[in-house]
Amino acid sequence: MSTHGSLSEVERFNLLYKSSFNKVCNFACFYVRNKQASEDITMDAFLQLLETMKVESVDNPMALLITIVKHKSLDYLKTQVRREAVSYTHLRAHETK
Fold it and tell me: How far apart (Å, rounded) are the C-alpha atoms in residues 2 and 97?
């Protein structure tokens, strides 16, 4: 049973958003080391959490949110590695011409 008793899912979400946005953003920043990217990841994660809460009951929204942020942060890092590899390959190709 929820510790918030009679709060609706939207009210639970709003409470979580207001009380933990900065903490969650700092968690994302720990992974990605980029403030703007961590804010984007955090916003996307909160939106994903809200969409999930609209269709199913979430017993521990903070735990789910942290899991979403972790996965989004790792996806961001994978994308950055690929971009750097492509840039390096492109640069090397121009050096040999």
Answer: 65
Longest dimension (CA), the chain: 69
Instruction: Compute the distance between CA of residue 12 and CA of residue 15 in angstroms, rounded to an integer.
Output: 5
Chain segment 31-66, per-residue pLDDT in tens: 999 999 999 999 999 999 999 998 999 999 999 999
pTM: 0.80
The whole-angstrom separation of Cα 13 and Cα 1 is: 16
d(CA 36, CA 64): 22
Return d(Cα 63, Cα 59) in angstroms, integer: 9
d(CA 10, CA 7): 8
Q: Which residues contact 38 (CB under 8 A, 6 or more apart)?
A: 25, 26, 28, 29, 31, 32, 73
